[in-house]
Structure formats: structure tokens, C-alpha cells
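Target chain:
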Amino acid sequence: MKTKVFLLLLPCLLFSCNGDVQIEDNRRLLVSGSITGNAPDNISVVTMGAYNMEPDDNPDKILGFGKSNQNGKFSFTSLDTYSHNLLISINSKVLDDYKENMGSYYFYDDSGIHQLSYDLGEINLPQKVSFDFNIENTSGTSDTLYYSFKYENPVKYFVRATNDFEEVEDNSYVTVYEILPLSEPRVHHIDVAAGSDLKFIYNFGDQAAQEITVSVNSETNSYDFEY
């Protein structure tokens, strides 16, 4: 019985059972890069221990912290961890100085062997536009409307593959919505990267699909589709 208890407790001795980040002694990581685009200065960049690509709001998991200068460049030294994977967050949504009008990029290294240096290169961090797409049946048609959206998300995720990071494909575009003839007007609130296009793909019943393209910026942040 004592042996069984010891075996159950052993993982908790080797790795923190409550998720605490364990620091790798005598090992530091250099994180650098350059943010381009509008207003690239004073944007927070942090490293943290993580088990997935989503940032944790627990400040104890932060390993390093830096900010971009007036030219958008950043460089700082981070602690390393042996108990967690590594997440590098640019304009993380869990930080107090999160800029709501800017996008967020997350670089995730789950390789198990962290690099001593992470040079993220040039990062074109877009401004974020909160876009409202309004849909209303004003003609009284009895046709069912089917539609989907395609747009550039201002939040992007990257996973380390060998020595480089590769963008994770955004699967949000596979969602197809429908509006029945007697449905109430509908509003979609969508975060879109400024300077990009939002595409509205739609069809009625079994008719051929049609497409509307809207150029999104700070001044064009809504569209009314009436049918």
C-alpha cells in the first residue's frame, strides 16, 4: 500500500500538480522582433508557460516581459521553464495594457526543447475593427438565406515547426448560417483586420452562390444587407 501511494505522488513531485510554472535554472531565452504597421510602439510582448495556444491570466506564469520602442523593435531576456510549453504573446488580451484597437499574435512552442533565441522577424500587427454586419428580410421573400463570411482575423496563432513558426489555419469560415423567411433581423459582430476585405457569400435556396466584398477600415465598420 505504501508503494502505491508513493507512485501516485511521484508525478506531483516531478511536475507541479497545480499548474505552477517550474523555472529552468541557469537558462535564459532571448526574444526579439519588429512590429510594423500603424502605431507599432509601446506594445507589450510577454513569454509565459502554457499548455495550449491561449494565454493564461495568471501573472505567475509570465516568464519575461518587453515592449516595442518607437520604431516597433523589441528585445528582452526571458526565463525558461521545464514544466510547460512556451507561449510568446504580442498584445495579449489578458494583460492590463492590452490595446483593444490592435490585433494579437500568439507564438506557441510545444516542441519540448525551447530555443535559446527567438527572432520573430517583422510582424505586421494590424489594427482591429469591430465590424457590424446587419441582415434583414425587407421584401418578405419566402426563400431561406444561406450565408458565410470570409475575412482576415486580427488575432492569429502560430506553432513552431522545426526552427520556424507556421500560422495555424483559421477554420471559422466553414460555418454556414441560415435565416428562415420569418426570422428577425440579425446582426453579426465581427473583429476584422483593418485594411482587409470582408467577403459575404450567400445564396437563396438552391440558387447559385453570390458574393459581396466590403473593404474594412476605421471609417467603414458596418454593412446593411437587405433582401
Remarks:
- Residues 128-153+172-226 form a domain with the Immunoglobulin-like fold (CATH 2.60.40).
- The chain has one helix and 16 strands.
- Residues 1-18 have pLDDT under 50 and may be disordered.
